[in-house]
Amino acid sequence: MRLDIIGDIHGCYEEFNILTKKLGYEWDSGFPIHTDGRKLAFVGDLTDRGPQSLNVIEIVWGLVVQHDAAYYVPGNHCNKLYRYFKGNKVQITHGLETTVAEYEALSKSEQASIRNKFIELYEKAPLYQVLDNQKLVIAHAGIRGDLIGKNNSKVKTFVLYGDITGEQNPDGTPVRRDWAKKYNGDRIIVYGHTPVSEVRIINNTYNIDTGAVFGGNLTALKYPELEIVEVPSSLPFVAEKFRSID
């Protein structure tokens, strides 16, 4: 199995386009297809905050649902957008407002199309992916070793939000335990969710959310080579959005 696992895109469509081309994907068909048979995988948070969330949805839906040519797991922003599209009451904040603004600018038929595609993408996705004969796990915010193979509300909360304590930091973000520091499994776990200035590699885990939407990089991890490929963001750098993790 040969994959290129993409970190949190957050509507950074241009960076995604450039990164896939750097990885050897061609867009002649309208979707990034690798000439050597490699596939893309996504750690979630496709949308919100960035300028072209709906374009990202179109491409990932096409790859995953239409062509069975990629893997996807949902992130917390995906979950919130799904609930919005299903008509649930959600706060249109923390980046969702950018996606909603794009959506509201569409015609009714275009709205129905993108809404239906995203709902289908989300509903067909597992909470996390266990791939390559259980040697690789992809989960948006990571997953503890003892939770792999389980599917319940506790697992859902963990993979979407991380190992949260229920407390809040002064800025309102949830306090999270550093699960990766204690991970001692043989499986490689690739995740995102928490922006870091450079890929964090610890105990067979890889955090590849390098904050593209906050002016960092959009990162891919090549598997099984475990090589990092990045492209710089075109957006302004927002230093306080990056977590310092020892």
UniProtKB/TrEMBL annotation:
It is an enzyme of class 3 (hydrolase). The keyword Glycosyltransferase does not apply. It catalyses: P(1),P(4)-bis(5'-guanosyl) tetraphosphate + H2O = GMP + GTP + 2 H(+). Keywords: GTP-binding, Hydrolase, Nickel, Nucleotide-binding. Its EC number is 3.6.1.17. Belongs to the PrpE family. The lineage of its organism: Bacteria, Bacillati, Bacillota, Bacilli, Bacillales. Asymmetrically hydrolyzes Ap4p to yield AMP and ATP. This is Bis(5'-nucleosyl)-tetraphosphatase PrpE [asymmetrical]. InterPro entries: Ap4A_hydrolase, Bis(5'-nucleosyl)-tetraP_PrpE, Calcineurin-like_PHP, Metallo-depent_PP-like, MPP_PrpE-like, Ser/Thr-sp_prot-phosphatase. It comes from Robertmurraya mangrovi.
